[in-house]
Every structure is written in structure tokens, then in C-alpha cells.
Amino acid sequence: MTDTRHVVVTREGLQKMKDELEYKETTEKMRVAEQLKVAISYGDLSENAEYDAAKNDQAVLEQRINELRQMIENAVVVDESKISTDAVGFGTRVTLVDANDPDEDEEVYTIVGTSESDPVNGKLSNESPVGAALIGAHVGDIVTAQTPGGVRKLKIINIAL
Asked: Average pLDDT in the 134-151 region?
């Protein structure tokens, strides 16, 4: 069964997926093949932990390669020239502050798809609690997001590309 769900990405996100796929299909496949070759050389495969580990690594690698191929095939790249900064949306960079403590440091996030999400590096999924709450909001708006850590009230300071 094929998942035909579209994967919304930025141009940068699509390139990262392509780069990861190339790396997995070349460097990682060769590493796992060598790992298998060494494990097989140890003999009896029925009680060979190295062989089992190598086969598991191979399965995980193949699964990720297939996942990347599918995401690339179903990728929909957002046209950055059509992104509006009137409201928070996919591809916009939003600056916000905790509405309950405006003296706290500002946070800056770029709204991206789930495949590109990396909150630690400022990339927030449009499907995450905070990302979903921000979508459609304007500068000056206060949004409420139910997060695993509790309710957050966030004031939007700026929207840019």
C-alpha cells in the first residue's frame, strides 16, 4: 500500500532529503554491506549476534531509504514568492514572546512541514501544537497553544520571510 500523502516542504527541505537519500544509498549501504561481510566471516549465522545486528541495520536503512524516496516523490515545494507575511503561514519566520512574561527572550521560528521540523534549530512544524496555533495569526495577536508542558500564550511580534 502506497502512502500518497503530500509532503509540504521548502526548497531547502527537499534538498536535504535528496542529500540524505544519496548518502544512505551510497555511503551507508557500503558500510552495512561491509558490516554484513565481516559478520558472515565469523561463521555459524544461527548464533551470530554481529550478523543479526548487521541485518537489523540493513532493514532500518532500507526502511529509511524507502521513506525518503516516498517523501521526495510526494513532495510539494512551497513557492516562496507566493508566501505572504500578513499572517503566519507555511514558510514564514515568526518572532514571538511569552504573553504572560513579555520581558522573557523572544523566540524565532520558521514554520515548516513535519518532515523538516527541528524546534531546537528554529524550525517548527505546522502540525505541532504551537505551529498549528500560530497559523493564520497576525502581528500583535496572542495565541494559545496546548503543549505537553502546559498551556502557552504567545504574542506575535513579527512575521517575515
From this structure: 94
The torsion region of residue 53 among left (phi > 0), alpha (psi -120 to 50) and beta comes to alpha
pTM reported for the whole predicted model: 0.72
Q: What is the average pLDDT score of the chain?
A: 90
Q: Give the pLDDT confidence score for residue 4 in this predicted structure.
A: 61
Tell me if 113 sits within 8 A of 7, measured CB to CB.
yes
CA–CA gap between residue 107 and residue 105 (Å, rounded): 7
If one counts every other C-beta atom within 10 angstroms of the C-beta of residue 140, the result is: 8
Q: How far apart are CA 103 and CA 114, in angstroms?
A: 30
Q: In the chain, what is the straight-line distance between the N-terminal and C-terminal CA atoms, in Å?
A: 37
Strands 142-147 and 123-125 come out as: unpaired
